[in-house]
Amino acid sequence: QVQLVESGGGLVQPGRSLRLSCAVSESIFSRNAMAWYRRAPGKQRILIAMITIGGGTTNYADSVKGRFTISRDNANNMLYLQMNSLKAEDTAVYYCNTTPFRDDYWGQGTQVIVSS
User: Fold this and answer.
1) For residue range 3-39, what is the model confidence (pLDDT) as tens digits?
2) d(CA 3, CA 116)
3) What is the pLDDT of residue 42?
4) Under a CB-based contact definition with an 8 Å cutoff, are residues 4 and 97 in contact?
5) Cα separation of 69 and 51, whole Å?
6) Can you tell me the distance from the alpha carbon of 57 to that of 86, in angstroms, rounded to the nearest whole number?
């Protein structure tokens, strides 16, 4: 069964950190580059970070570069997003998916709210 389940979101003050996790079915994880996406209120969902299958290459949207770090644990089929120095504009629902994404892989996402 295809499954991508995000977790780790919450309410956090500006400047603080959060770590998001995504549990991924092995059949998906082992064969795909992975990415984190986010949908901010009133905006389209965008890709913010991606990582290759082996984990050796990562890329980030300019808006998160230098603050967010994507990583993967291939032994446990887990994808992570370490988010530091959070800003109000990082408020969004965060999703994991392959890259390119597949419409049938979208999960519920995890909500991140950055507010004082």
Assistant:
1) 899 999 999 999 999 999 999 999 999 999 999 999 9
2) 34
3) 95
4) yes
5) 10
6) 23
